[in-house]
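Duplicate of #3305? Posting structure anyway:
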């Protein structure tokens, strides 16, 4: 019995393996082509928006500013308040269904072209190539002895990476603290503790993710890589290797006819693996590590052009199209399938609803808050007094005057310091209001009354005011 147990234990030890693969450094080769040009165009566009948007001015302030301390978000002419959280919900819904739609149609487009991890990895790789050279030069440098040249190249590369990362962290904080003010504080070395923390934290995250971890983020940290498979179907456009056309693979000279020697179009050059940022071999089929960047398509097409073969050995296609040898027209016909139509319909409904909400959005908001300390009081001669606080929020940047009145009981009187109330653009004010009434003998308990607030633009008395009516309760002892 003991011998058998020992045998089982030895067998278990023989198949033991680590659950985490030891990282093998990847040296992606530079590649050019149509998809590389598209990817770099997206890089330029996204970074121009990210780095440049904070410096734009609008109405004398930063065009896009998320002022958490003041609880106001400025997006060009739109000012959002905490009460506008519904728009954040709409944005999250739009983002989710857009991701569902794009994935169902064409796989990991977001990952391959516009994900920040992809974008900054491309930028960091570009810096690395400029400093250390392309793939073979970088591999030779890493294998070589540590001399003055190697130290100089490594220090230059990491110095540029750190500078870009810190500028990225600075720009990120600039969306929450006015960037011109933040720049002055950085120059004067008087940055607040929270600004300094987030600049360093975001810069460190950029440096670590794009400079060191790279494909590890996509393979092990990003949840999208794990659940993308359930969002695909046989008609989803993904990067595919045409085995019928490429196999059997093998090397040959340009003058050899592959059909005459029983070979497919794949010359087994390994370019598709060398240019892949995650180091996979797409010829082994679609894998969750594939981010859909199409670098392997550009690399393979270059080899096909040199060999005089038709392009498309590696291409965007669908599982059904590859099996049935269908053309692009057949692929396009299956784009508009039920799943895609449902996602598209939901997106349009949410977009239309959001646009209608923004169009009909009132230029100011009013919250009526009862004073819980002095809910009601006897003012003499049978007059009952209730105390309220009206929080008036001017939601746009136009100064307004607010005329306040009340109704719901006979002879209601308002007592407040000023009426109308003057309020500047994108400002908020708490207005104490005392409401007095002389109820009749049959009126007692909680009675519904209404506050009527008329907002009028300053200097535009000829225009009809915007009116908001808020209901509340008047307590009669």
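Output from current build:
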């Amino acid at each position: 019995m003991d011998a058998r147990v020992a045998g089982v234990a030895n067998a278990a030890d023989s198949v033991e393996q680590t659950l985490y693969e030891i990282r093998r450094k990847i040296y992606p080769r530079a590649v050019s082509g149509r998809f590389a040009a598209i990817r770099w165009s997206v890089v330029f566009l996204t970074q121009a928006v990210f780095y440049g948007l904070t410096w734009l001015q609008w109405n004398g302030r930063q065009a896009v500013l998320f002022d958490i301390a003041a609880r106001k978000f400025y997006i060009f002419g739109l000012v959002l308040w905490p009460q506008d959280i519904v728009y954040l919900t709409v944005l999250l819904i739009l983002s989710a269904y857009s991701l569902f739609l794009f994935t169902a149609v064409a796989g990991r487009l977001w990952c391959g072209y516009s994900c920040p991890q992809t974008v900054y990895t491309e930028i960091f790789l570009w810096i690395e190539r400029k400093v250390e050279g392309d793939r073979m030069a970088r591999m030779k440098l890493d294998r070589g002895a540590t001399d003055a040249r190697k130290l100089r190249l490594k220090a230059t590369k990491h110095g540029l990476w750190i500078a870009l990362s810190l500028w990225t962290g600075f720009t990120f904080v600039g969306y929450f603290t006015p960037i011109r003010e933040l720049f002055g504080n950085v120059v004067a070395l008087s940055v607040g503790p929270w600004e300094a923390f987030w600049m360093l934290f975001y810069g460190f995250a950029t440096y670590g993710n794009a400079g060191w971890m790279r494909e590890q983020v996509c393979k092990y940290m990003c949840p999208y890589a794990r659940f993308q498979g359930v969002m695909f179907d046989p008609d989803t456009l993904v990067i595919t290797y045409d085995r019928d056309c490429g196999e059997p693979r093998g090397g040959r000279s340009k003058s050899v006819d592959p059909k005459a020697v029983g070979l497919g179009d794949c010359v087994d050059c390994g370019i598709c693996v060398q240019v892949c940022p995650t180091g996979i071999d797409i010829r082994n089929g679609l894998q969750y590590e594939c981010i859909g960047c199409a670098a392997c398509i550009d690399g393979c097409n270059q080899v096909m052009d040199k060999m005089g073969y038709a392009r498309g050995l590696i291409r965007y296609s669908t599982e059904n199209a590859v099996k049935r040898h269908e053309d692009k027209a057949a692929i396009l016909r299956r784009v508009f399938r039920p799943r895609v139509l449902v996602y598209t319909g939901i997106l349009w409904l949410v977009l239309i609803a959001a646009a209608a909400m923004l169009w009909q959005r009132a230029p100011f908001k009013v919250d009526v808050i009862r004073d819980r300390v002095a809910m009601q009081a006897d003012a003499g001669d049978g007059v009952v007094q209730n105390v309220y606080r009206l929080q008036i929020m001017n939601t746009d940047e136009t100064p307004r005057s607010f005329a306040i009145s009340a109704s719901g009981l006979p002879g209601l009187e308002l007592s407040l310091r000023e009426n109308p109330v003057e309020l500047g653009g994108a400002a908020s004010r708490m207005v104490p209001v005392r409401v007095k009434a002389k109820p009749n003998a049959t009126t007692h308990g909680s009675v519904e009354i209404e506050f009527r607030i008329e907002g009028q633009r300053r200097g535009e008395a000829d225009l009809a005011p915007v009116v908001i009516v808020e209901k509340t309760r008047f307590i009669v002892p």
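Confirmed duplicate; merging threads. The mean pLDDT is 89. Residues 233-326 form one domain.
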